[in-house]
Amino acid sequence: MRNLLFVIACLVGLSGMSRAEAPQVAAPRTITVALDGSGDFTSIQEAVDSAKKGDTVFLKPGAYPQDLTIHSKDKIKLIGAGVDKVTMLGREDLVGVLHVGKWPYGATDIEISGLTINEHGGHALGIFNGKGITLRNLHVKGMLFGQQVQDVRIEDCVIGGSETTGVQFSDSQAVLVGNVIHDNDHGVNIAGKSDVRLERNVIIRSLFEAVVVNDKAKASLVGNTLVKNGGGAAFLGASQSDASANVIGLNRVGFLVSPSSRVTTAFNALFNSESDYMRAGSPNTPAPDLKQDSDVVGDPRFVDAEHDDFRLRSDSGLLNKGQFPFLGALPPVQKLSSNR
């Protein structure tokens, strides 16, 4: 018995010593970048390279003629002083301005917010081989491209001005919520084996389709407003999609559906100049048989479509449809002002 008590006492002592000697975890830091030298760094890249797990890199106001690659990092934040105060301009000799991940290295649990990202060579922001990437409250002036990246969330961003596609995903998983995607050749392109959800986005003035789902991709379009585009949404290849509660209007075509794709639609508002439904082929042909009984056809009564105010008027016919309090991305106004 005395031997047993001695062993227990030794183990307790060792346990206490282990706790006492355990290394202390460093508290998360805020690393400041300022062009005028008033921060910890003048280089965004050097600041991010120095960041450890849990750290935040904060950008003071300024127009930074720099590019940035974030790779082999875990749980760091890059936060600007505001989209109207911080701009990453990139460098003339490089395509793209901000990259998260660099083949074959990725990054995990990265959050970027509060800045404007310019484009170079048509590309502004690329995400590669990462997981848990959050982009919030950004102004992206060029293509946003994601390849082999998982658990991406893009929220409350303005993305536009690309000569090709505003947002493009290949073999990726992502959610886009509450964004404005404007003035691109295509708004959003979902390809490969991607799985992407679009919810409460406004996609406007795409030269061609607002949304293209291709290859073996999966997509869910819920409560978006797709207006003033060449087309609303195209479902091509062997893609699988569902679309509900969207407002798709002021385009030439609403839905373009390939016979090889699988699409489920319900409670969409459609008012397009040529056709609400087309079947893809050579040439494309009208497909009125694809219309659903729950579709709403006619003027949605936007507040001011001419000036891109796509909120619904209080007397719109798109309120309280099925389980949806309203169709489209933007909630209705409660009362019109006297000058409307």
Strand content: over 45%
Number of domains: 1
Name the CATH architecture. 3 Solenoid
Overall body shape: elongated
Please report the total strand number as a whole number.
35
Largest sheet data = 20 strands, parallel
- Average pLDDT, all residues: 92
Q: How many angstroms does the end-to-end distance come to?
A: 92 Å
What's the tally of helices?
Answer: 2
- Give the assembly state of these chains: single chain
Task: Estimate percent helicity.
Answer: under 10%
Structural class of the helix and strand makeup?
mainly beta
**What is the CATH third-level topology name?**
Pectate Lyase C-like
Using the CA coordinates, give the radius of gyration.
Answer: 25 Å
Given this structure, which CATH class is correct?
A: Mainly Beta
In terms of per-residue confidence, which ranges show pLDDT below 50 for 5 or more consecutive residues?
Answer: 1-20
Structure write-up:
By secondary structure, the protein is mainly beta. It has one domain: Pectate Lyase C-like, CATH 2.160.20. Helices cover 8% and strands 46% of the residues. The chain contains 2 helices and 35 strands. The strands form 4 sheets. The chain has a 20-stranded parallel sheet that branches. The radius of gyration is 25 Å and the shape is elongated. The N terminus is likely disordered.
Describe the structure concisely for a colleague.
By secondary structure, this protein is mostly beta strands.
